[in-house]
């Protein structure tokens, strides 16, 4: 085919399609994770470098060029988890059985309710786009379908794996007794216990949806994008799980992780109110939940 840019053959089209596909996959990998800020930084850096070259600022463009060479190696180190994630993703089977996801959602929510009723502490991370393999390695590998009795048995007080968190991949539990990164003790959530801070910490570093049942209060909460949501009842929990995890087909970017789960309707202030008197999602996300110790 002849175009203003010369001859374009089937190979060129294939070449462009593959590169576009790879760029899209890279985008899916970083969107919703903290890596997206690093990508923004790189784009700004590249922009300044190009501008320096165009304006003939030789010293600046020389320095930025040298820094860029070193930066490539730094990026390999910085993006090591994402690169590893990409390779893991390539090898992972695709597709998601909708009925299995629906059953897992119901079983998970029911198990959370039962654990909360009995005030049995639980910590459950649900993998989305960021693979949680490195956290799964800190615990015991399991490959079992999510079910109410199984989850209850895992977190039962004297069970060998009740300490730590479990990791879910779709409808399967892949690891139990895992250590999650603790959220820094100097932040908003410093007065929370370690279970809640581990949930917040993991959600801060990955796009996982992390569920917590408090042993002390018997409450159910979701940590997302470094924020801890409010207490949820069973219906709210199911809605959140449906929205955040089980409705997301493979290949579509994960749910936006900036917004924390909404505050309950009775906590919404009138000035934030939308048509239903509920806070707008962004406004709700900014509101900090009350520290646990003060609530008891
Ligand atoms: N880094 C971690 N990763 C995973 N689980 C952890 C981690 N740190 C603590 N836990 C879990 O949290 C439990 C201790 O919870 P702790 O009482 O300190 O937290 P909490 O936030 O007050 O929760 P609760 O309201 O259930 O008491 C531990 O027994 C362990 O199961």
TrEMBL record:
One Gene Ontology term of the molecular function aspect: diadenylate cyclase activity
Membrane spanning residue stretches: 13-30, 42-64
Composition skew (Basic and acidic residues), residue ranges: 283-296
Region (Disordered): 252-296
Catalytic EC class: transferase
A Pfam short name: DAC
Keywords: ATP-binding, Cell membrane, Membrane, Nucleotide-binding, Nucleotidyltransferase, Transferase, Transmembrane, Transmembrane helix
Catalytic reactions of this protein: 2 ATP = 3',3'-c-di-AMP + 2 diphosphate
Annotated DAC domain residues: 80-234
Family, as annotated: Belongs to the adenylate cyclase family. DacA/CdaA subfamily.
HAMAP family, A to Z: DacA
Subunit structure: Probably a homodimer.
Described function: Catalyzes the condensation of 2 ATP molecules into cyclic di-AMP (c-di-AMP), a second messenger used to regulate differing processes in different bacteria.
Name of the protein: Diadenylate cyclase
Species for this entry: Deinococcus radiopugnans ATCC 19172
Gene behind the chain: dacA
């Amino acid at each position: 085919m002849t175009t203003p840019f010369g001859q374009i053959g089937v190979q060129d089209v294939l070449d462009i399609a593959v590169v576009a596909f790879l760029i899209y996959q890279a985008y899916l990998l970083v969107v919703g994770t903290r890596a997206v800020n690093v990508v923004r930084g790189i784009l700004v850096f590249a922009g300044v470098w190009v501008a320096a070259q165009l304006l003939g600022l030789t010293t600046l463009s020389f320095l930025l060029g040298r820094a860029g060479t070193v930066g490539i190696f730094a990026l390999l180190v910085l993006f090591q988890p994402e690169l590893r994630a990409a390779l893991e993703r390539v090898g992972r089977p695709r597709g998601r059985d909708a009925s299995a996801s629906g059953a897992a959602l119901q079983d998970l929510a029911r198990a959370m309710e039962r654990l909360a009723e009995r005030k049995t502490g639980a910590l459950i991370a649900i993998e989305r786009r960021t693979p949680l393999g490195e956290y799964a390695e800190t615990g015991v590998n399991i490959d079992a379908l999510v079910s109410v009795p199984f989850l209850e048995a895992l977190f039962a007080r004297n069970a060998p794996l009740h300490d730590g968190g479990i990791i879910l991949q779709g409808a399967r539990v892949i690891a139990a007794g895992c250590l999650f990164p603790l959220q820094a003790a100097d932040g908003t959530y410093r007065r929370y216990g370690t279970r809640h801070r581990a949930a917040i910490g993991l959600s801060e570093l990955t796009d996982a949806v992390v569920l917590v049942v408090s042993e002390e209060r018997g409450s159910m909460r979701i940590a997302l994008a470094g924020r801890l949501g409010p207490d949820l009842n069973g219906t709210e929990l199911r809605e959140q799980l449906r929205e955040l995890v089980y409705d997301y087909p493979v290949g579509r970017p994960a749910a936006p992780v900036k917004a924390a789960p909404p505050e309950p309707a009775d906590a919404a202030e009138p000035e934030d109110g939308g048509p239903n008197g509920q806070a707008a999602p962004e406004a709700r996300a900014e509101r900090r939940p009350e520290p646990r110790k003060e609530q008891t």
